[in-house]
Description:
heterodimer, A: Dna Ligase, domain 1, Rossmann fold, six-stranded antiparallel sheet, four-stranded antiparallel sheet, B: 291 residues, 22% strand
Amino acid sequence: MNVHEYQAAEILARYGVPVNPGRVAESPEEASAVAAEYGGTVVVKAQVHTGGRGKAGGIKLAHSPEEAREAAAAILGMDISGHTVNKVLVAKGVTIAQEFYLGVVLDRPNRQVLVMASAEGGVDIEEVARERPDKIVQRRADPVLGFHPYLARELGFALGLPATQVNGFAAIAQQLYEAYMGEDATLVEVNPLILTEDGEWRAIDSKMSFDDNALFRHGETEQMRDFAEENLTELDARNSGISFVKLDGDIGCIVNGAGLAMATMDAVKQHGGEPANFLDVGGGASASQVAKAFSLVTADPNVKAILINIFGGITRGDVVADGIREALAEVEVSAPIVVRLSGTNADEGKDILAKAGLTAVDTMDEAAASVVAAAHGRAD
Amino acid sequence: MSILVDSNTRLLVQGITGREGSFHTTQMVEYGTNVVAGVTPGKKGEQVAGVPVFDTVQEAVAETGANASIIYVPAKFAPDAIYEAVDSGVALVVCITEGVPINDMVPVYAYVNANGARLIGPNCPGLITPGQAKVGIMPGFIHEPGSVGLVSRSGTLTYEVVDMLTKAGLGQSTAVGIGGDPVIGTSFVDVLRLFEADPETESIVMIGEIGGSDEEDAAVFIREHVTKPVVSFIAGQTAPPGKRMGHAGAIISGGSGSAADKIEALEAAGVRVAQSPSQVPALLKEAIAAA
C-alpha cells in the first residue's frame, strides 16, 4: 500500500523527522489561504502516487497567495502518468544549501533492512544506483538489535558531512529506520533531505510504502488509503481473497496459484494474444470464488475470451468444475470460455463441464492457443 | 538418498487441529509420511488422523523424537511457531503459512540461521521426496521417485511441471517449494548446493519468477559450482513493472527483477531456459543427453 507525500510526512514527523512545514489543499482557495498563512514563497506540489511530478509540471513555486491560487488551479485536475491530481501540498519555501538522499529499504538478497544515503539528493536515486553506484553509501541494520547509532554516524561521515552536522544527520537516519520498523513499511525515503543556509536539516519530500501483510496491525495506515489512487477492482478482488491485476489485453485469465497465473499470461502472449489480467483465485476455488472471478474478469469491456486454467492439487478438479457450473448459473458470461483442467479428479471435472456445455482441454498450451483463436473470432 | 526429507523424517505438525492442519495431516499420513506428533496449545491428549497432539513443541519432541516440523498456523502466530520449533531443537522447519509480515521474518531468518536450523518458506507448498515423505500441501500422486531435483518459488506451477516430468518418465529425487515471499528461509542457491551434493539427484529443474535477484544469484552459483544439468523456467515474462503478481515477492521494482534479466543470467550460466513449462521435460532430456 502507498500513501501520499503529505501523509508520509505526517508519519515521519511523529518519529521526530524535521519535515518541512506544509498543508494539503483540495482547491485553489485553500492553497491560497495556506500560502497567506505561511507568507513568502511556497511550493505547490501535486499529490499523486507516481513519480515524475516535477517534469509533468506538477510542482510549482508561488511567491504570493495569488500565485499559489493560480498554481493550484493549474495542478489540480492535471493527469500525471494516468493519475488525476485531486490534492496539492502547499509547503513553505526554503533556501537549499545542500541536497541529500536518505532511504530505508529491504535488502532482499541479504534478508536485512538497509539504510542508504547519497550526497546526490533530489535526483532519481535508481539512476544514481545504476550509473554512479559509488555515490551511494549504505549500512545494514542488525536483524535483532536494530540500527546502531554508530552505523548512522558512519553514513554521515561517509557522505563527507562536517563533524558539526553528523549527529543531526544520524538522528534522522535512525528516525527513518524507526518509522520503517514501527509502521511496517517496505520503503521510507526522503529525497531530498536538505541542509538550509542556516545549517538546519529539513525533509523536503517524503515517501512511504507499506507491507500489505502487516496492515492488520496498522489501522491508522489503512485509514490513509486514497481510494481515488487505487484500482477499485483490484481492491474488491483482494477483499474476496483473490489476487487481481488489470492489464491491457483482451483475454481474461482465471487461474489457481500465482506462479501458474503468471505462466498462463506468458502462454497467452506466446500464442499471439494479450492477457487482460492476472488473476489468482486462491486456494479454495469454490463456486463463490469462481463466480467472483468471473464478475471481475467480465467487468472489463475489453475482454473477448476467457481462459480458465486450473491445476487440481488439493483443490479437486470436480469441485472446481462444479464451481464453474454454479458460477455460470449466477453470472452471465457472453465471452467464449476455454477451460483447462488437469491434476486431481480432472476427468470427473471434465464430465461435469461437458454437461454444462463446456469442453475442457488437457494442456496449458492447447488452452492458450484455443483462447487466442476464440478472441480473434476464429475456430481452433 | 534425496535431500532434506526421507523415510527417516519424523514429522511434527504445528497447528494440527486447525482446518488446514488437520486436513493436510490426514493427507500426509495417507501418503506414508511418518507424522509422529502434532501441537496445538491446550489440545493435549487429542488425536488427528491417529497422531497424538501435545501442548508444546518441547514436549512433542521429547515424547516422539520429532526431527522436522511443518507449520499451518495463521500468519500472526507463524513467527512464534518458528521460534518454538527452533528452540526445541527441530532441525528442519517448513512454514506453509501465507501472509507473514516481512519485518517479522527478518529476525526469524537471522535466528534460524544462528541456531543451525533450516527454514523452508513461508508462503510455500512444502517439499516432497516421492515414495518416502510428503511434507507439504502438494498432491502426492503426481510425483514419482527418480533423479530430478526440483526447486521452485511457486505452488501450482510446480505441480504443473512435476506432472509433466512424471508423464515424460522423469521421476523426482526431491521437489522443494521455497516460497513466494521476499524473505524466505531457504534460497535457490541453498537448495542447488544440496542437490549438487546429493548422489541420487542427477539433474535439476529450477522454477523461478519475477522479483528479487535469487535467480541471478543462482545463475552465478550454477556457473561456479553445479556440474549437473540444469533446466529452468521463469514465470512472469508478461508481468508489468511495479505490480505485485499474487506472491508478495513477485514484483519488478526499480528496474530490477524482470524475467528477461533472470533468463539472460541463467542462459549465460549454461542453463537451458524453457519458454513454457511444457518444454521442460524435453529440454531436460536434451540437457541430460548432452552432459
